[in-house]
Design brief:
A hairpin with an 8-residue loop joins strand 16 and strand 17. By secondary structure, the chain is mostly beta strands. Strands 1, 13, 14, 15, 16 and 17 form a six-stranded mixed sheet that branches. The protein has a four-stranded antiparallel sheet with strand order 5-6-7-8, with no helix packed on it. A four-stranded antiparallel sheet has the order 9-10-11-12, with no helix packed on it. It starts with 10 loop residues before the first helix and ends in a 20-residue tail after the last strand. It is built from two helices and 33 strands.
Length: 500
């Protein structure tokens, strides 16, 4: 059984458990931090996700259901290293809690690697990786307990990721699911990469400041309660970061789930969230399980896209209209209140396909510049989209950015039956359950990574290269769990989440 809660009791929804549970985890927008002028200190990595310092950006791909040492769903994370040729199956690294130097031990149902967030957390010039194990049982500290969760930072170096440090868990009122969601960013404007951590039992976000040592608190820890969510929330469900108001400090978008209304709360925007004296609640954006931040219209302010895969806001079987995404524009004050948010579904003119019950359009969203026009383009996953008679096959839609916002008339899409895309559309593949946009071959255009956690029962990853005017399937790359040496017993769920 894949990681996460069961959405429904049908076969399709059992295999789609990762859509809401892990695809909502967001990471650094575009991976290249916007840094303010900073005091003298050790240099941070140019890219927040270049783990071996070779100048190419890398992917961290989750495989939380991986069997390790006979322990089911102990979990793993797979690093796919960038190169002049982009992603290659031969340039990968598998890390588990049984890897040398990694704290803890591989145990049943830890789900190590369910979510990840990249950043140079010790400012040594190599990107590091924070890895969540939201079902880890801990026995020491104020936040300990069964399924209390844990976060480990794996350290980058010239040879890639090596060794790690377990982060100190703060005191928690409800110790459950610490590390369920992660994101990185420069949240205080000092030029270092910081880490934000959420957990499923509390409405708190905890911050670990970037530092210069491999310590359990990094450069120090604090946090705050997300007061825009009521006590009926089950905890933090999504985090995304980027510089929405253009002041050189990354801002934070926080989402949660409301048991009372069976809906996601409207996601809340906090400016300069790490500094209590500067922290500003800048209002809510749309309801949603996922979020991404990037400058869609090229005006210098990052915009926010939220994904609502189970619109119209109900868990009940058969009630979903298929899902949607909403664009909220950024401004110097945070949200641009002079321009109304724009909601897009598969029934919007120009968008491929049609809104159908339980497509889960918006389960994954990613923003970056695919065509080199200095505007962020949007990729949207609909992992339960049916192709022909095959249910839960999945599809991805790309909507270009433009001076006027998202150019829906120019949207295009892919599934595994699209020309040039490796593989074939099959039931319960869940193509598009996870997405990431980043330039992995150094040509200045973002490439699209696509996860399909159900492919052949084990999961797989695709990469389509960025190009003007659109992505190309020429030279498309795809590889599955077995190709890179992951055990394929059980459900590895390879590709269930990708750090962005």
């Amino acid at each position: 059984m894949p990681y996460g809660i069961l959405l429904q009791e049908s076969h399709v929804h059992k295999r789609l458990a990762t859509v809401v549970a892990t695809a909502s985890a967001a990471a650094l927008t575009g991976g290249l931090l916007t840094l303010a002028a900073a005091p003298s200190h050790a240099a941070s990595s140019k890219f927040a996700d270049d783990f071996n310092g070779d100048g190419f950006r890398d992917h961290a791909v989750s495989a939380p259901g991986t069997v390790v040492g006979g322990h089911g769903a102990a979990g793993a994370v797979v690093i796919t290293y960038g190169s002049a040729r982009g992603l290659q199956s031969a340039k990968t690294q598998v890390v588990t809690q049984s890897s040398s130097g990694v704290p803890g031990a591989s145990e049943k149902d830890d789900y190590f690697g369910a979510v990840t967030a990249a950043g140079d957390y010790n400012s040594d010039g190599f990107a590091d990786l924070a890895v969540g194990a939201p079902h880890e049982d801990t026995t020491a500290g104020l936040g300990s307990g069964e399924n209390s969760g844990a976060v480990t930072v794996l350290w980058g170096g010239s040879g890639g990721l090596s060794g790690g440090t377990a982060l100190e868990i703060p005191a928690l009122d409800y110790p459950a699911g610490f590390g369920k969601v992660l994101t990185g960013g420069d949240f205080d404007g000092d030029g270092r990469h910081d880490l934000a951590v959420g957990q499923s039992g509390d409405n708190y976000v905890f911050f670990y400041r970037g530092g210069t040592a491999k310590t359990s608190q990094l450069g120090g820890r604090n946090g705050f309660e997300v007061t825009s969510m009521t006590t009926s929330s089950t905890g933090i469900e999504s985090l995304a970061s980027g510089d929405v108001n253009g002041d050189g400090t990354d801002d934070l978008v926080v989402g949660g789930d409301n048991n009372d209304t069976q809906d996601y709360f409207k996601q809340a925007l906090y400016l300069s969230p790490l500094e209590p004296a500067r922290r500003t609640y800048a209002g809510d954006v749309s309801h949603g399980a996922t979020a991404a931040v990037g400058d869609v219209d090229g005006d210098g302010y990052a915009d926010i896209v939220t994904g609502h895969p189970r619109d119209p806001r109900s868990w009940m079987p058969g009630t979903s209209l298929g899902g949607n995404v909403t664009l909220t524009y950024g401004a110097s004050s945070g949200r641009d209140t002079s321009r109304p948010p724009v909601t897009i579904s598969q029934d919007t003119a120009g968008i491929p396909g049609a809104s159908e019950a339980e497509d889960f359009f918006g389960s994954a969203v990613a923003l970056d510049d695919i065509d080199g026009d200095n505007r962020a383009d949007l990729a949207v996953g609909a992992p339960a989209e049916s192709i022909g008679s095959a249910e839960g096959t999945g599809a991805v839609t790309v909507i270009p950015g433009s001076a006027g916002g998202l150019a829906t008339a120019s949207a295009y899409g892919y599934n595994q039956d699209s020309a040039g895309v490796p593989g074939a559309a099959e039931t319960a593949d869940y193509f598009g359950v996870a997405l990431a946009l980043k330039d992995t071959n150094g040509d200045g255009k973002a490439d699209l990574a696509i996860g399909a956690s159900g492919e052949n029962g084990d999961g797989a990853l695709w990469s389509l290269k960025g190009r003007a005017p659109k992505l190309t399937t020429t030279g498309a790359v795809s590889f599955g769990a077995a190709t890179i040496g992951l055990p394929t017993s059980g459900y590895p769920d390879f590709g269930s989440s990708i750090a962005r």
